[in-house]
Amino acid sequence: MSSSDIQAAFIEAAAADADGIATAINLSEAGDLTIDGALASGGSVTFDQPRNVTITSTGDDTGVTFTVTGTDETGAAQTEAITGVNADVATGTSYFATVTQIAASGATDGNVTAGSGTAIAAVIFRGPLRLRGMYVVNSGTAGTITFRETSSSGPIRMQYNTTGTDGSTEFPSIPDYGILHKGGGYVLFSQANLSSMTLFFS
Question: Are 197 and 137 in contact (CB under 8 A)?
């Protein structure tokens, strides 16, 4: 009997949590938000999947910059400056695997919280791989799933659209010997567009 070098990665994302990083705090001057949300452990957060960060303000924080520090989907150190908003949610665009600090540049106009967003950059494998196949469970909202090489901003290797039929399954076709990701593979999606996926690679 011959052996196989095929591996499998199961990917799904927990629900976004608006105060999962830092619960409500009103800063009287520049300083750090306390990392004490439900996702926190020992003063830092490690997400289930690398994802974006949100800052929710009850007042007008348009003059405040919130600098998020942690690591990105590749494991490298990363910071992102998120500009506050007026009684709304400021949504970051970088993907964080961990968050160790969120610093506000000035006093906040009321309570602010920090949490996890819905934009995901899941790690398939950080080394070279060939994507061989997949099994997908759809959510109730259609959207585009993007596979990239090297990082969340690396070259696009494949894209496909989900059906938007909640609970339906599909097996998107992977041609020939699979799709090569020389520098590691990452799959980007919105939490609303996908329930889960199992990826087969070698």
Answer: yes
Burial of 100 (0-12, 13-18, 19+ CB in 10 A): middle
Give Cα separations from 57 to 45, 69, 88, 152 (angstroms). Answer: 20, 19, 6, 28
**In the chain, where the domains are located:** 7-12+122-201, 17-117
Given a cut of 60, whether residue 1 has pLDDT beyond it is no
Cα gap 59→4, rounded to integer Å? 57
Give the pLDDT mean for 138-146: 96
Q: How far apart are CA 170 and CA 195, in angstroms?
A: 12
Residues in the chain: 202
- Average pLDDT of the chain is 96
Predicted TM-score (pTM) of the model is 0.93
